Amino acid sequence: MEKFGKILIVDDNEDVLFALNLLLEPYAEKIKVITGPERLEYFMTTFQPDVVLLDMNFSRDVVSGQEGFDCLKQILHIDPQAVVIFMTAYSDTDKAVRAIKAGATDFIPKPWEKEKLLATLSSGMKLRRSQREVNLLKEQVEALSDGNADERIIGESDAMRAIFDTVEKLRDTDANILILGENGTGKDIIARLLYRHSPRSGKPFVTIDLGSIPEQLFESELFGYEKGAFTDARKAKAGRMEVATGGTLFLDEIGNLSLPMQAKLLTAIEKRQISRLGSTQSTPIDVRLICATNADIRRMVEEGRFRQDLLYRINTIELHIPPLRERGNDILLLADHFLQRYARKYRKEMRGLTREAKNKLLKYAWPGNVRELQHTMERAVILGDGSLLRPENFVFQASSVARPHKEEKEVLNLEQLERQAVERAMRLSEGNMTKAAEYLGITRFALYRKIEKLGL
């Protein structure tokens, strides 16, 4: 049976709490129990349960259930979408109807039947998950309506599903995260997704592009400065770390940071305090770090260009964003998304791409990843005519697909080339034999024979 998530049980009977904890432990990720409403707000905000099992009565000989309704009101004030299941030994139809009208999800009588209790919790957990999916879709729609269309994340490949699953697992954590990936893969968009799905959502989200800030300005940008700290410091200014306190600091392209600046950043992270330039006073900071780089950070450590102790501090969790060439049919999903966007922008009647155009996009290596695909689609829409984009609408730079001479020599063997072609077709089609055969321009039967011949 699928795990129920986090369950908070509120009941004044310790025997009931013990029995429920024992019963539900194999089915729940985490369980917290409290004997009364006094600490309800604390556990709702810190534990953030998926489902609340709430007793209706906390005073002996009281059967009205009003205490439970008061608690329900408090819970829904903290989390309007909370899934609350009432429990009471004094069940009747009137209370059940009133509970649902007040915002409860369901109603369980005491003593409970095990199967019915588990089924009710399972339904509650499904409702909670669907709420999260709806909220995520709403966020994406709001981002689009606000003009932040670049923040929409599109992808159905296994590689991207793994990224989404990891983001969901990190929802309740404050861990520092290192995002690795080539230029143009969307590391900054993933960073914002992590922020929106974190306990610090709604708090400051501050970005520093370390690839665009000169080293001599890094310290003043990160830590701030006092009036008169240097020639142009006409007034005091808070640094990015100070501004981000309580929220998230996104350090993009952290691989560009020099060793002296790495040391200063590490000190700030370890001491959780900074000093503005020109000040002798320390300022406490509380930031969650999300860092990103396209560099081979571990090779940089081996070569002495990046501090190993700083790497340990920033990569509690690592996320590897796959290059576009490894995302299979996501290429076409993204192409369609960009086509629709730019067709609206430039007021063109374009419905899609021809089959040949799709094949051309799928066979290209996309060294610039999603960013290159976006620019390619915009150019094709601007210059294209008719309702469909064709292969000739897409012109790729020869230099972007050129390979080193040495590598060309290594793959001149025909069997090796055939193996690479079949493997790439299978990867692009995500295992779909019909599509893979289409990419290769052969029949399914011929593809099966080649797979058998090559031992794939």
Automatic annotation (TrEMBL):
Keywords: Activator, ATP-binding, DNA-binding, Nucleotide-binding, Phosphoprotein, Transcription, Transcription regulation
Keyword Transport listed: no
4-aspartylphosphate, modified sites: 55
GO molecular function, one term: sequence-specific DNA binding
GO biological process, one term: phosphorelay signal transduction system
Domain Response regulatory: 6-125
InterPro entries: AAA+_ATPase, AAA_lid_NorR, CheY-like_superfamily, Homeodomain-like_sf, HTH_Fis, P-loop_NTPase, Sig_transdc_resp-reg_receiver, Sigma_54_int
Gene3D superfamilies: 1.10.8.60, 3.40.50.2300, Homeodomain-like, P-loop containing nucleotide triphosphate hydrolases
Record domain Sigma-54 factor interaction: where: 153-382
Keyword Ribosomal protein: no
Tree of life domain: Bacteria
Protein's recorded name: Sigma-54-dependent Fis family transcriptional regulator
Any matching Pfam family: Sigma54_activat
